[in-house]
Amino acid sequence: MNIQDYKGVFVFAQQVDNVLSGIALELVGKGKDLAKDLNTEVTAVLVGSDVKGLADELAEYGADKVIVVDDPELKEYRTEPYAHALASVINEFKPEIFLVGATAIGRDLGPRVSARIHTGLTADCTQLDIGDFPINPIPGKEQLHNQLLMTRPAFGGNTIATIACPDFRPQMATVRPGVMQKAPREAGKKANIVEFNPGFTPNDKYVEILKVVKAVSDVADIMDAKILVSGGRGVGSPENFKILEDLAEVIGGTVSCSRAVVDAGWKPKDLQVGQTGKTVRPNVYFAIGISGAIQHVAGMEEADIIIAINKDETAPIFDVADYGIVGDLNKIVPALTERLKVELAAK
Amino acid sequence: MKIVVCVKQVPDTKGGVKFNPDGTLDRGAMLTIMNPDDKAGLEAALRLKDQYGAEVTVVTMGLPKAEEVLREAMAMGADKGILVTDRVLGGADTWATSQTIAGAIRNLEYDLIITGRQAIDGDTAQVGPQISEHLGIPVISYAQKIEIEDGHVIVERQYDDRYHVLKAKMPCLITALAELNEPRYMTPGGIFDAYNAEITVWGRANLVDVDDSNLGLKGSPTQIAKASDKVRKGAGEKVNLDPAASVDYIVDKLKVKHVI
Predict the structure, then answer these.
(1) Could you give the domains of chain A?
(2) What pTM does this model have?
(3) Hey, are the CB atoms on A115 and B238 less than 8 Å from each other?
(4) What residue segments make up the domains of chain B, in order of their start?
(5) Chain B stretch 157-176, residues whose beta carbon is closer than 8 A to a beta carbon of chain A
(6) Would you say domain B2-214 falls under CATH 3.40.50.300?
(7) Which of B183, B122, B128 lies closest to B157 in space, CA to CA?
(8) Up-side HSE of residue A170: CA atoms within 13 Å toward CB?
(9) ipTM field
(10) What is the DSSP string of B183-237?
(11) Predicted confidence (pLDDT) per residue in A254-313, tens digit
């Protein structure tokens, strides 16, 4: 492998049902920053069936180039044809950096692709920078410049590590959704669109999709919410989430929850905040009856204001809360809702 | 049917994480457990064994001490345990780890390989899919339900807002979620038998079709530039008031911060 042959920042533009996922635009935004540091371009790789129409949206969010891999075999996500698409794009276009979202799709696709093309992959990154490796000069070891430094939490968020991939290309990372920022949309901006089809021949590695079952959910995406009213096991029952829903409605927020609540079957998985759920960064996060296990905290600690209500004054949630209230949520939450109704009506 | 289950011995983070003065993890001070997603994968294999009949072989890579999780797996009902351990395998990233495990599995007959989705120490979720790629078999990640039908496996595969029911030809690799099931307990007889059972120990020489350049720290494309204990924001205020005063307190803070 001649590392000098690999140029440009590529991002996987994930789409589901021919709608770009939020992570696609976040990666274009981050890719643009990295490309600027490297004095190169950001390319979005759009994979699916009849998806070419999404290329303009990627351009408006900052993609300089869009490679479209369009084939009927790519209609629904399946590991093998998608891995073939990305591995073929990498072999053909030789990017120096390739970013994939750390989603339920990307965390399956990324490892498969990196293993196919023999490069390193850093999982679930929360920060990406261009810098030197080793970070500080080490006598007798060449310090490489313009390396991708990939920072990620491990141990359920207890430790943080920065990883480099000095000897292989592309430098690959999966990136946690909700962490990177989209660039502002520039209406009418165009990208160079390149169509590429490596050919798709089904084999034993192509699994058959027997059924697609969509969760019936008309709720807002908790990752977009400015205010989250989040409940844990301490809420006590699925019925009692009503008091959280009432609060959310009055304050213009959305209800989310902890993993314990999903495991108990009280709320669907897409409302789950935390390591195995979603990472959220709202302006205000109400943690109600949530003990604050490290895996939960990893998904919400970037909120601007964290308000915790818990009857257990030793609950670890109080270690990250800006404002902690030790008390009975069944008394405080309904009273808060009533009070906010009065306050907001007076405005 | 022959099922291979990959498990990892990990520090138990439930009792909190202990650090050395230099900020690295003090693994010696923490208890170890079988990684929860792997345990769910093992339980899934044991249920398939109960339902369809199967031989379940558990494979782990780690220090010699990792044989403990193999004995635990056998006490739960696994038939065989294989420990892959060798000094030259140390410091492996997910590429080198998956190469090692694939190299070990090439010695075995299998219809199904089950791994946990991710380990609670590394949290990468990469080793399972990478093993499948090295072995050239299909992978189905995030399995929430597994059935066998006529040489094929039928799996419910979870996504954020949906699940797919997938059908794959065996052999196939599946990664299991801890939510998949409630793992069974070890039985007293099982514990007794497992204590006496022979564990197969393999080293570098037993790995099939793996080049030295793909093993251990030297065979790892990713390298650690920096590692540290995470700096947290720290606790803010904590009050213990009656409900009415608590409401006043929250409303006051929301006003100060211009939320309302």
Answers:
(1) 3-195 (3.40.50.620), 222-345 (3.40.50.1220)
(2) 0.84
(3) no
(4) 2-214
(5) 158-169
(6) no
(7) B128
(8) 26
(9) 0.89
(10) PPPPPHHHHHHHHHSPPEEE-GGG--S--GGGSTTTT-S-EEEEEEEPPP----E
(11) 999 999 999 999 998 889 999 888 888 898 999 999 999 988 998 898 888 999 999 999
